Amino acid sequence: MALWRRSSSWLTSCSRAPAGIGGGNEAKVSPEVAPEEAREEDRRAEAEDEERWSRLLPELLTDIVRRVDAGAERWPPRRDVVACACVCRRWRDAAVSVVRPPLECGRITFPSSLKQPGPRDAPMHCFIRRNKSTSTFYLYLSLTQALTDKGKFLLAARRFRHGAHTEYIISYDSDDLYPGSNSGVGKLRSDFLGTKFLMYDNQKPYDGAKSLKSRSSRRFASKQISPLSGDNLEVGQVSYRFNFLKSRGPRRMHCSIQCPVGQGTASDPSKEKPPSTSSSLSLKNKAPRWHDHLQCWCLNFHGRVTVASVKNFQLVAPAGTSDPWGVGDEETVILQFGKIEDDAFTMDFRHPLSAYQAFAICLTSFGTKLACE
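User: That's the sequence. What structure does it adopt?
Assistant: Structure tokens below.
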């Protein structure tokens, strides 16, 4: 017995037919279209749709995208810019040529923006929410001047225990936080004491990046295939100084982050060849001062941190640092992180760090470090 379905084309023609024509109230049916034929029809329809949109003059197309970009300063209206880039290939190319990277415009638009340096003149305000029961962390872009709001989701991470080591899997997808994730961005791996962390990227940020194969990637490679199942590219280190004598003072940390020199300004890094060289950006935590009246260590977070915590820190470049980014000033805070609620923390970063690098550094602050406190 053949399968049948109501024909949509018939319904359309029937609605246009004069009364009394077409068999009265009879419901006509047509044979079921094979799945392959249906998919082929859908592909042809999509191709015709794309061809119609791509016929616009280049000047007109660029002007349309430029107007949409100028009228969408913040999220959620900024989703219209992403929608323009999803129309077809020509619209995508136009959006990539119009939309500027965070370094120039101070805005995050495409996923590729998360691995590009932040703004130079003012920090980009974000916040992190923690779920202790699932060991997950979520990074959001602040949409208002409030410390926390609904926010725009950027990245997520989940902590795993592998023997004596701890790993954080960082992903674009908040529901896909497992080794072997197809939406993985990179990962963070700690040593036995949790005082030294290695930061890895699943994409080559520059020519000559150091490639390593971790034991965890080999373990999952037989069952799942993902960007993280092959080579992991080391792009930074974060270390905490030991404090075995329990001297008075907060944690002391040092970061060495590999940042490409001559980073391009295109919004889509696939449009350009990765820079051939990189330079190591050295950062250390800004030393707090002891407040006799409050009897605690204090740092000026300019109202962005409200709860005292051992996790709070500010990172600056050491005095006299010579680097291609011009951040050798101990008063310029490159990254600050601090607690505002039990499971909410602010994260503000600026050039030359990217959102991904800043998020990975902040993840190292979670967890107990008995040897450092």
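The two ends are 76 Å apart (CA to CA).
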